[in-house]
Amino acid sequence: MSVSFSRRTLARLLGASAAAASLPNLARAGSSPASSRENGSGTLTPPPAGDSRSFPAGFLWGSATASYQVEGAVHEDGRGPTIWDTFSHTPGKVANGDTGDVADDFYHLYKSDIAMMKDMGLKSFRFSVAWSRIFPTPTMTSNGTPNQKGIDFYKRLVDAVLEAGIAPYCTLFHWDLPQSLQDQGGWQNRQTTQVFADYAGFVAKHLGDRVKHYMTLNEMRSFVELGYGNGIHAPGLKLNRKDLAQVSHYAVLAHGLGVQAIRANTPAGTLVGLADNATACTPVYDAPEHVAAAHKAMRQENAMFLSPILDGHYDALYLKRMGADAPVFTPADMKAIGSPLDFVGLNVYPASYVRAASNEAGYEMVPEPSTAPRMASPWLYVGPEALYWTPKIVNDLWHPKAIYITENGASSDDRLTPDGQILDTDRTMFLRNYLLNLQRGIAEGVPVKGYFCWSFLDNYEWADGYGKRFGIVYVDFATQKRTPKLSAKFYKATIARNSVA
């Protein structure tokens, strides 16, 4: 397999896209110089009022991880097998034959990792629960007997996060579907949506006295299209256009039923959302016709996932284009899918450039030039203005109560220097320029309340194995030694100042 593909390779790879979109990139970002500096003693001084790099008071700076990518301990304390255990142990599916059997050993090292988060000044930590740690072998009729050791692990984890003064943000599904469900059809089986909701409600009930923010599913587009469309992710299937559209529908239905289940099992004041890698529709430049085109594209290019969740219905043009391949759904489905949210989480990486066009959609996607800058992952073109336009357009179209950037980060070809440092100036550049664009949008009134850097640790990057490093903390996977990178120091300084360093 080609390891140039990743979990965020989107609908341009597949015929199921609403508008046969490609994921382009250009660059357009601007900012004024920083005015906050370290004094002679190394103490950070606050930026002056009106500094264009500053974020609002109380802005939530965080980092994100996912269960299979960091936990390891796949055979411990009653955890059941998942589709990623099966897929990663299948020869030829993952670069270098890497598996998540050990990963970052976060299952055993979480306390020291959380201590590092505290030292860095993080205000929040986004983690995911491994479904098969809670219910090892669910079926389509029941999740079965809960695994108390799995429940206890996540309680200990959350307690350690809270003790560090960090707010826990819990994702209920980050791609590690129990293998027992896949054996019965997985996301092709409508009943998975209800079993997921039951599991989500159970977890929320048991963590609800500790966790106040939940996300249902992470990146539906990725696990549907990469796992069931082109087969480069688990479970490795290649469905036809119609069947893939139905799987997409079951994913958004699971989200909606999950929202309802979480609300039914948690105290008042619990906030529920999702983490979606919406196609980051970005005008080729800031002109009225291209900005209007990007707004049209945002709804159409996300017509399978984010749009029906926030609109409560499928877009007519999407259904027209899909024709006989459109998903089968009921009014009750759409009511659940459109369940009101307390926040929208956006995972933002490359920009998808859009220009105005005189076609039925009113826009066209602009492909990346061969010389477009990108990071170590071939798919990760550098387009910092995506972090301005994506939340801005989402806010313009749907007016969510709050927005979080639930993932943003970059892979780099990290190498230790002779004195043991990782001077990842490229990742630092990436983060700085994206954050400056985010700050621009917030200053204009876009209600972004927090930012989760992907990722805190180098981890298991799905089909790329351990070859693509996204962490701001370097992990020696042979020894599990952690080393903060230059980007971690940049992020720590940014958090301390509440202003882009």
Q: What features would you describe in this structure?
A:
This protein has 501 residues and is α/β, with parallel strands linked by helices. The protein is built from 16 helices and 13 strands. The chain has helices spanning 67-70, 83-88, 106-120, 131-134, 148-163, 179-182, 191-207, 220-229, 241-264, 288-301, 306-311, 316-322, 331-337, 386-398, 425-443, 486-497, and strands at 60-64, 124-128, 167-173, 213-218, 271-276, 281-283, 344-347, 352-356, 363-365, 403-408, 448-453, 473-476, 481-484. Strands 1-2-3-4-5-7-10-11 form an 8-stranded parallel beta barrel, surrounded by 6 helices. A 3-stranded mixed beta sheet has the order 6-8-9. Strands 12-13 form a two-stranded antiparallel ribbon. A hairpin with a 6-residue loop joins strand 8 (352-356) and strand 9. Helix 8 packs antiparallel against helix 9 (241-264), helix 10 (288-301) packs across helix 14 and helix 15 (425-443) packs parallel to helix 16 (486-497). Mean pLDDT is 91; it is low at 1-49.
Multimeric status of the protein: single chain
Helix-strand string? EHHHEHHEHHEHHEEHHHHEEEHEHEEEH
Main sheet: strand order:
1-2-3-4-5-7-10-11
| Derived structural class | alpha/beta
Helix content estimate: 25-40%
Average pLDDT taken over every residue: 91
Count of alpha/pi helices: 16
Low-confidence sequence ranges: 1-49
Overall radius of gyration: 21 Å
Characterize the biggest β-sheet.
Answer: 8 strands, parallel, barrel
The CA-CA distance between the termini, in Å, is 40 Å
- Tell the overall outline: globular
Query: Approximately how much beta-strand content do the residues carry?
Result: 5-15%
Q: Please report the total strand number as a whole number.
A: 13
